[in-house]
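ok here's Signal transduction histidine kinase internal region domain-containing protein:
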Amino acid sequence: MQPDSRKKTDILLMVALMPPTLIALNYFMLGGVYFSSFKNFCIASAVSLSVLLGVWIAQGMLAKKMLQLFPSHRDTVKRVAIFYSLNLAIVALTVTLICWIFDLFNILGFRFTAEAWTRCLIAGGICTIVNQAVYETEISFGRIKASQLEAEQLKKAQLQTQFDSLKEQVNPHFLFNSLNSLLSLIAIDPNKAEEFVEEMSSVYRYLLRSNEEQLTTLQKELEFIESYNLLLKTRFSSGFQPVIRVEEKMKEYLLPPMTLQLLVENAVKHNIVDPDTPLTVQIYTQDEKLVVINNLQKKNKAVVSNKIGLSNIIQKYNLLKCAGVEIKETVNEFSVVLPLIKNTK
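and the structure:
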């Protein structure tokens, strides 16, 4: 929830919950005297309100701090327990202060006794439980709405990635080059031509299925990129040289699907790929991160690019609350460092 929206919600909650809290506390403290006249009602309410407003603000600040310390929904029980315990202490002090003020200034004949203090404390405790229940319910609904929105945004980003990737692969230029490569292989190496068709089929199958999951394992991404690399190696021969060095233990880590394909495609699109000046794309893991790096040999004619691929990757990581994508370009190299997400299943 945005800060402005959160502030408006807090004000609405205060407007809705403050009056019944004020009335309950005064009635338990003063009894029927509170409602005996409009004057009595206004005097008692004004005195109590002056104290409760300050307390309410303090409780709001405390609630905000608790959300910062325990932001996850898994910490709800711990946060509520701590928040409620602190709130009870605040309520006890508040009730004591209000009773003392009423007794000190002899407001409506009130006398500070153990019985009166206990009644007020019970009323304050009940109001605190009700108010906190309402607050926690509102927080839960807010989180559900935020989660649904983020899920929709992530789904949209995945569909956009799939569409962009599929559009790139089925455009006439790609099909022409692929069919040309296949035609040459059929003539000189039928077995390799059959392998080429199988790998091409794997590429399209993965592209079509990639929108079914928000995350995929690094193992699956590597299997896909092996097929994709074979198509590129068939097309560019020794001009394209992929190097993959991934630790076995990292293969079960997660990342958004199609990430590697976008980065390899980006490298091929913007650089010269030739046997005399081969393009080397390295993929390796380091400190629970995936590094994709290629030597930089930009084409003489600049390639038109809207950088959707890289933006899409960054957007996905942001939606997954896993920011930290690093993009670096030097005179000789272009690199992208991606955080890998631990698989908890």
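+1. The chain has a mean pLDDT of 81.
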